[in-house]
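We include the pair:
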Amino acid sequence: MRAVFNQDRLDGVALLILRFGLAWFIFVWAVNKILTPGQYQQLVRHFDGVEIATSQVIMVAAVQVALCLMVFAGIGRLFSYSALLLMHFFTVTRRWEQFLAPFEINGNGFPVNRNVVIDLAVLGAMIALVLLIRRDHLSLGGWLARRRGKWAFWM
């Protein structure tokens, strides 16, 4: 019974769950960019004050989907996990003012900034995933690293 629940195995399961959850979080947003590119064009116009073409939105979404698939499989871990982290960090930095007013209520009595708190939790989880790459045993990259040597954590 002890061998079934050793710490390495538990760490691997925990990181598998974390990896799948974070990849799914970004994957849903990326696929929605493909399904409704106009919505994301409006967001870029609102936050950045620039116009982008539908093809640009779809191209960015395709890259994000590819990165999510890499994270799901756990391949190119240092690159794919860090890329997901940087993408999400960029999103967080664009909305930092909302984090300073988490209890703001609009005219209809609705808390307008409560959902942005989720972004901070996801950012923390993504940082943890990158920091724990060496413990990510239940991934293709983890398997490859074990076969190639302990310093191959980027795989």
User: Anything to note?
Assistant: The CA atoms of residues 34 and 58 lie 5 Å apart. The two ends are 31 Å apart (CA to CA).
